[in-house]
Amino acid sequence: MRPGQSLIFFSLVTLWCCQPANQAEEGAVLGVSPERKGIISVNKQPEAASAFVLEWGKVKMPLSKYANPEVYSGMAEVELKDFRQLIGERLRLLHKGRELDVEFIGIYREESGRFSPYRRSYPGFEQGRLAEDVVSAFRQGARPGDVVALWLSSPSVGIKVQPALIKVTDPFEPYSPAVEVPQPRFDGGVFGFQLIQEPGRRPLLRIDTTAESTRHIYEMYRHNRLYKIIHIPGFQTHQRLLAGRGQLFGPADIRRSALLGCGHDLLSLPEFTAFGGDEARLVWGDMLAEPSSGNYLLSEFLSNLRAPLHLMVGERELPIRSFHLITHGKTRQPALYVADSLQTPALIKALCRLQPASTVYFDKIVVEDEQERLLLFPQPFAFNIGAGAGPGQEKD
User: pTM of this prediction?
Assistant: First the structure.
């Protein structure tokens, strides 16, 4: 894999009314009883962090396996001044705290729109440190926005790190969320069953067990003790398979959770499928996500906090009865709020403390149709707050 390709792979993230709130005000840590497990989203990430860690100066980069045999990678972001210090520091590859032997294969500055690439294959490397000529070249040539790729291996344990990426922070770079919302198409056919396969959870089959059209599917799984079957009358979906990788955040990603409303047993709800070829969009005051928004100024975002949400499919509005709201950003770990309304004091306070370069995700939205049935809406949305917060700044 070329260094440029590896970068693409891994790129695959106030106002007067805002007063600090402590964790108690935001809501208690969410405890979920067995019958309410469907409330919490179970989700994401290609691979969990392994027991391998790359330690370079003060940077400790967990490595994740992404290819066979035993190929690992990782990424960290540092300020320019820290990178210039880092490049001359000792580098160690650790497995469960034990230092491994390292063969340094190459160090490359990735090509970007601003700077040409710079590469050193098999550079001088002794006692965990790069040769002085390499250190000097990268220290002097470092610029904001650089991505430096390290390629190395540990012959004794047979692993390769291809690559470990060090991103040099660019304060003027347009904000791009680390987790992008998917854009599934809902203009195809519908199916009468759905398999849910999520890491660490029992596989699920959602199906109408009495429907003749899917009787053969039901018969395939009804005696398989591995699967839990959930009967939903008249069940239909556009997505036959939901796997952990297709979700936004997993339980291990969420650092805080708060239940601010009644919540719903999401797994037992039928799914909204009446798109009719129309696109979905979420309107929040003057802000629009379809399914992701552009970058709004922090001042714009805060001015819309108390505005109502409108979920539109074409020209049709679907009343929102509950949702999962997740906040995440460059300086903020993911936090989950299960709410029935935006106008919850604890939720408003949490949103009010967001900083530039943050994203607010709406997922697991429950809507109501004309027959007053509750339906799970299959599309998440994201509102992005750009890195700049000054008045009059253009959206990215």
Answer: 0.66
